[in-house]
Design brief:
single chain, 146 residues, mainly alpha, binds flavin-adenine dinucleotide
Length: 146
Amino acid sequence: MLPGLEIMPSVPHWYRGRMALVGDSAHAPSNSSGQGVSLAVESAGELARCLRDLPDLATGFAAYERRRRPRVEKIASDAAKTNNQKAAGPVARTLFRLMAPIATKTFMRPEKMLGPVHGYRIDWEDTVAACLKTRRQEDRFPGEHS
Ligand SMILES: Cc1cc2nc3c(=O)[nH]c(=O)nc-3n(C[C@H](O)[C@H](O)[C@H](O)COP(=O)(O)OP(=O)(O)OC[C@H]3O[C@@H](n4cnc5c(N)ncnc54)[C@H](O)[C@@H]3O)c2cc1C
């Protein structure tokens, strides 16, 4: 029911002079691919290899882009296809726009939905021995009772 995601378009040039792009600056796939970090690390490794093994920056950068572009663009386009299949039609999009402000103020509040994961705190001042005696609510697993 969510509207289609905005996807970063293909970047025409990955390097110029002494500068080369790596990671999201060159290829940010839709987050639905779950591959952004892996691709960034792979590209960094490939760039390092190309600069290690080729005689100058221009040749190294060109080889880097040639070796990486097909893979990252395939992953980005597969993710875009998945997103399009899941994207809502015009009626659902209108409903979503109308409902979203109400939903985020009531049952879809970010603190409620994301709080248990993103709001985790470690109380540095609290000693571990004291924690073991009285396990705090936030130290328990979801569904676990005292
Ligand atoms: C909501 C969301 C969910 C995601 N989920 C996943 C997932 O589940 N799995 C996955 O693999 N990927 C996921 N990604 C993608 C992943 O986060 C990125 O692909 C990855 O972080 C890219 O790494 P990067 O080093 O290229 O860029 P970044 O991680 O964005 O690092 C760039 C860094 O440069 C810094 N910076 C920017 N401008 C300057 C400047 N002028 N000077 C100095 N520093 C600067 C920024 O502050 C930042 O720290 C997700 C992304 C989003 C937004």
